[in-house]
Amino acid sequence: MLPFYRYLIRPLLDFLLRAMAIWSPKARLTWQGRRGWRSGLQRLPQTVGVRVHFHAASVGEFEQAKPIIEELRTHFKQSVITASFFSSSGMQQQGSYAGIDAACGLPPDRPKEIREFLERVRPQLIIIVRYDLWPVLLAESKRRGIPVVLVCGVLHRSSARMLPVVRYFFRWLYSQLTLACVVGPDDAAAFQKLAPTLELHRAGDTRYDRVLARTQQPSAAPTIAPHLAEHGLTLIAGSTWPDDERLIAQSSDSRLRVVLVPHEPTPEHLLPLRKQFPESVLLSELEPELETTNRAKLHTVIVDRTGILSGLYRQGEIAYVGGGFGAGVHSVLEPAAYGIPVLCGPGIERSRDAVAMQESGALLVVKDAASLRQALLRLLENPTERRRLGEAAQQFVKSRANATERIISTLLKKGWLA
Fold first, then answer.
1. Could you read off the pLDDT of 183-218 as tens digits, one per residue?
2. For the chain, which residues make up each domain, given as ranges?
3. Would 31-205+401-414 and 225-398 be classified into the same CATH topology?
4. Which residues, other chains included, contact 294 with Cβ-Cβ below 8 Å and sequence gap of 6+?
5. In angstroms, rounded to a whole number, what is the distance separating the alpha carbons of residues 334 and 214?
6. Taking a C-beta distance cutoff of 8 angstroms, is the pair 347, 326 a contact?
7. pLDDT band at 299 (very low <50, low <70, confident <90, very high)
8. Of 333, 335, 347, 376, which one is least surrounded by beta carbons within 10 A?
9. How much of the chain is in helix, strand and coil states, percent to nearest 5?
């Protein structure tokens, strides 16, 4: 299988990425990052101790690695932890994370580069988060006796990896792993079917640990409450798209104080949004020196910056998560972890968290402006129901926590962190 990959599949993947780089700035940065991987390892510590390397495709997957990294730092004071990313956004946004000693783009998956990469990093253990397996990296690590562990592994029975044409390639690919820590029983069954020889452990998903930990950390978000109307409940509408925002505008209630957090707060998005909410104010306009707002009557704030959504959910009493009227709902876990009712649109099938939350009665799914208005009225007028839904959402997260502890325990038992 490896020659088939090296001489056919990998050159094709390289060609496609280089072709995309002609017109896509993101693809261009990813290509440049993979070629320039050595620069990120120039200051790699040579400390003697536990050496663990993490690989993640991008930003979201690396968030799942952070609880494991932080736990490793607690267990092993003398440790060297490195990370690699496939996407340019992963490297840009997470490469400076304080928990790692060095970060780089993943080298091109060719024997020469991978060998040099492993010689520089010298990992005694490689942890790959969720997916993004690269055949040469796996094969060369296996040849050198370096354990490679997949964590937070998920696999659907209907995955394209199960199709007859490609199944044998992926069976070989997963067989190069030393161990897979999978999320749930359905994932375990699918992995068992695809790669019968792969050792599996059901450990859960570290995302639950991550969102709960963030509720205990200082918030990077500014406090908006002093700028809002004195009376009313605060609705934090996070990661919204135009379809979400239209429904919220149509479902407005004088008893709601709305904080809109667009998924893409670009000028092109914000200009029509301000017209849709004519009495709204941008977060950047709420600086103390600006006196352009009658703060006693302010009911709508539009957040025109990124990276603070989790801290804003902390300030809300109701959460609406966007994306459910488009490609798919965004993360429902962050607001749930704060113990507030969570609402979203109907596009939840691509989010197993959202599907499970709805099945457990911890998520309100709305189909149109009328059903959103009805749900908001229900929460506004019934404090007991609001509290019940918030507690159900938080309990959903807490009941699925502790994956990090199970993963670390498994690694320690295997002796890979000695």
1. 999 999 999 999 999 999 999 999 999 999 999 988
2. 31-205+401-414, 225-398
3. yes
4. none
5. 9
6. yes
7. confident
8. 347
9. 50, 15, 35
